[in-house]
């Protein structure tokens, strides 16, 4: 894969991490804490349907490219323009470790 030009990372993304707190009834309440604001590129990858709990749900995947930073992985999501992208997998784009490619699923409301 070709390395992106720095100008290609033009979308402002908010990085959020999931935090869970006990709800007092043996469960947990998940909330999202902002970690950072980064520049990135969002590219659509695919879409499809799957059956969950007996009903069809849509699935949209994206590739998000950002400059390398620590703390990006499972339990993290990106938010851009009101759309949430849950990180599914992360890979280094080049041996110099300058960029990360995050395979993400768009969270459906």
Task: Chart the SSEs and their pairings.
Blueprint: E1 11-22, E2 28-52, E3 55-67, E4 76-80, E5 83-92, E6 99-106
Antiparallel strand pairs: 1-2, 1-4, 2-3, 3-6, 4-5, 5-6
How would you describe this structure to a colleague?
This protein is mostly beta strands and 109 residues long. It has a single domain (6-106), classed as Thrombin, subunit H (Beta Barrel). The protein is 0% helix and 67% strand. The protein is built from no helices and six strands. It has strands at residues 11-22, 28-52, 55-67, 76-80, 83-92, 99-106. The chain has a six-stranded antiparallel beta barrel with strand order 1-2-3-6-5-4. It is globular and about 50 Å long.
Brief digest:
Helices cover 0% and strands 67% of the residues. The chain has strands at 11-22, 28-52, 55-67, 76-80, 83-92, 99-106.
List keywords for this structure.
109 residues, six-stranded antiparallel beta barrel, mainly beta, 67% strand, Thrombin, subunit H
Number of E strands: 6
- Specify the CATH architecture: Beta Barrel
User: Terminal Cα separation, in Å?
Assistant: 32 Å
Spatial strand sequence of the major β-sheet? 1-2-3-6-5-4
What shape does the CA trace take?
A: globular
- In percent terms, what proportion of residues is strand? over 45%
* Tally of contiguous helical segments: 0
For this structure, what is the CATH homologous superfamily?
Bacteriophage SPP1 head-tail adaptor protein
Taking pLDDT < 50 over at least 5 consecutive residues as the criterion, the unreliable ranges are none
Helicity level? under 10%
The count of domains is: 1
Radius of gyration: 15 Å
CATH class: Mainly Beta
